[in-house]
Amino acid sequence: MKCRAGLAGADSRCERCAKKSIDCVFQLHRRGRKPGTRITRAWQASPTRASQQASQYGALTGSSYHASLTPVSQIHEDVSSTEPSDLQPSGLLNLEAGKFSLHYILGSGNGDNVNSSPVPCSLSNDDPIHLGLINLQLAGCLFQSFMDVLNPYICQLDPDLHTLSYVREKSPFLFTAVLAMAAKAFDTTMYRPLYDHANQLMGVSFCQGTKSTECAQAIMILTYWKEPQDTRAWTLLGYVIRMCMDLDWHKLKPPSLQYQQAMSDEQRREARNIERTWYVLFVYDRSISLQTGRPFMIEQNQFIDSIEEWCKDPMSLANDYFLGALVKLRLETSAAFSLLGFRQRRSYTASLHETEPLLALIHGRIQDWENRWIDLTKVVEPADDINCHHFLILFYGTHLRLQLFLLPLQNALASDKAESYSGLEVLWIAYSSAIDLLQVVSQRSSQLYIAQDSVHIMIAYAAAFLVKLLLLAPKAMVAKIEPSIIDAMRNAALALSQQSPPSGSSCALQAAFLDKITSNLTAKSKSDTRPTSSRLTPLPAEADDVTSKDSGLFSIEGTDNIFEATNLDLQLTNDEGWASIFAQSGFDLEEGIF
């Protein structure tokens, strides 16, 4: 016999339960539901009930900040309930996202303590303000600086949702990561203790298996502005993606209008916070895949394709439009690299005629993308704001154009027929893209001062290509382009050094990198005694005597033979020569580091 719902009054127990002196618990019928599904109850979703449950759980776990993390199931539609029954282990055993363990699979349900995992540290023990690492006033200044200046570069947090009190209460890990990165940019004296504490909290979260939006955001923020010797970016990104997949984020679907209308503003912001983080992970995943040559993890699906509708939501921010631009850029060119990579492995003459129409199409689509999203960001952003989005859209578009147009050039420039190479348009667009990227750097150097590390590797990529072009291109072309290349590098290095960046920062390393290459190119140009030939430098097969003549061109701080002719390869991903010169300048390309 079931208890009746809707009882009111001081004693809300039904007559039967009152006579038997037992708790009166009303249960909805479960007839016809497959095993493992849950019934969403309106009384469970009420703010009063949620706050009571949070306070009770916090008392049991020592006021743990993990208890305040918002469950994904409370703010997103049940993605599993609409799927057909699955007789595989994932369908029969995985009852709840993020809780695939023996305890949840084999639990008897006889009052077992489901929260029997190790008790996390309390808020008071983790909070950097309580620990005395920073005072509240300075923390407020750093937090606001992060939201105003750094956050637009990464589109990670919602200023309307992520206030100081909200982030501090939700997750000391995220709070500390934000303060550490802000201190690295604006108050270096506070950076080291905050950074060490953030790494300690990351280790605690990993050991305890914490899975939450805030944990994912904190780890990503720590990878955007890393220490020069940090080699964890690729590994940490993979861990975060696996964590979010364990929370079923890869099953996200565009929310229906009816479901959105049933949510409060705070719930909608919480939902968009999860969706925004998954979009950021998609862009981050594809970007690292392109720069390292390693496979990506997040597949394109209906939710990823609906990015434009997501940006048109009334709650969208200016940062959301820029994030939408990056997602669309990856979608527009997702198939281009596989197509060009396959064709460039064939004979270069046949490959060139086949790829030129495709390259022309991609070139036009990138230009259309730039124009469209620059106009959109201008509309949604106030005119008096320091607009980094306009700069970044131009920068990312130019870099992607360069990377795409280099694919068919590999075999062509490495061929004995380079002097008669007919794809001058492809070569010129690649050269122009690299020059344009360096010119953007010199014109927007103030915005590069705080740009994430991946931007600086893109600059180094453009410089590396231009140097190799001088070594491999026909002599007549080199005579025309060498002065422009040296000027572009010199101006970019000067603009970066004028920002007075701290020693060891990405901006300082980039300035030293470009300055050293420029000075060596200038010195080599003045003392060039190469014999006349169809190319300035013989190909790897003929380069037995080139190393002794060119070994000083790229030597940095006494390191010789960094660029031998055997390393002249337009594919920069696994080039030991470029890894060596980057390491001498302070960059580390191993393990996917940017």
TrEMBL record:
Q: Which GO terms describe its molecular function?
A: DNA-binding transcription factor activity, RNA polymerase II-specific; transcription cis-regulatory region binding; zinc ion binding
Xylanolytic transcriptional activator regulatory domain: which residues?
233-320
* SMART domains the UniProt entry points to: Fungal_trans
* One of the GO BP terms on file: DNA-templated transcription
Taxonomically, the superkingdom here is Eukaryota
Q: Which GO terms describe its cellular component?
A: nucleus
Which key words are in the record? DNA-binding, Nucleus, Transcription, Transcription regulation
Q: Supply the InterPro entries for this chain.
A: prtT, XnlR_reg_dom
Q: Where is the composition biased (Polar residues)?
A: 524-536
Q: Where is this region: Disordered?
A: 524-547
Q: Does the keyword Acetylation apply?
A: no
Give the chief site where it resides: nucleus
- What is the annotated localization of this protein? Nucleus
Name the record gives this protein: Xylanolytic transcriptional activator regulatory domain-containing protein
Q: What is the lineage of its organism?
A: Eukaryota, Fungi, Dikarya, Ascomycota, Pezizomycotina
